[in-house]
Design brief:
Shape: globular
CATH architecture of the largest domain: 3-Layer(aba) Sandwich
Strand order of the largest sheet: 4-3-1-2-11-12
Largest sheet: 6 strands, parallel
Strand content: 15-25%
CATH class of the largest domain: Alpha Beta
Number of domains: 2
Distance between the termini: 30 Å
CATH topology of the largest domain: Rossmann fold
Number of strands: 12
Radius of gyration: 18 Å
Structural class: alpha/beta
Amino acid sequence: MIGVFDSGHGGLTVLRALTTTLPDERFLYLGDHAYAPYGMRSNEEIYQLTRRRIADLFERGCDLVVLACNTASAVALRRLQQDWLPTAAPQKRILGVFVPVVEALTAQDWYVRGPSPYAPPRAARTVGVFATRRTVESRSFPTEIKARAPSMSVIQQPCPRLAEAIEEGLADDALRRGVERYVGQLLAKAGRTQLDLVVLGCTHFPLVGDHFRAALPRDVRVMDQPDVVAQSLVAYLARHPEFKRRPDETPGLELLTSGDPKAVSEIAARFYGAPAPFRHLSGVEPEPTETLIAESEAQ
């Protein structure tokens, strides 16, 4: 199976693109709703929580996990790949939603050292990034983009509480006003600089993508992150067929949550675009954040 992980519902927008693009694969989605949202947590908490849930997916038969959370990808992915995975599960792999976006933005494929097959048709010189506060503070987007395309300008805009407001089902008009405020703040930072393209750097934000497009100047393009991630996974599986579904397995989808399955399922349909019945991740109960930090310090 291919595991897909997010702190909550946002990763379902990525899952929808993955299941549409790869209908013959088996997917297991895990939302850590008991601890969501991650965007307001410390870096150490994000790392510890992400590590636990990826271990849960590995234990349930996933050899490849897509980290469908920009905050976790920005804060925890590299540390997981370099420090934890080589000893904990050396035959398994963790991918993030972050790398495909940077590949597309810079028009460079990390692995084949050539043009990215899913880059925008017109190169961008100035890119805007809307994301959670934690993702913005990590500076992962500007750092990685600049490493690939030093001449590209990156303007970041944190969007505090927007992901939570989307997940809580805040009225559409209130969401629109919030998006307009954040777009206005980013455009003020840009000043007279021509903004070419923006990235909705949180997997919740595609649900209000129309509000972003309406608030931005008409000539500014908006990158569809879930679609880019899906195309990237297609390319990855072509290079690594060992992670594809075996002939003796049937395609399918299973949804797990560390939270309340009934409450989660009621909200999930908005993100997935279809009924999304969740089951509870057995043996998981929320712990105080102090426990997570103490566990980290003991390692």
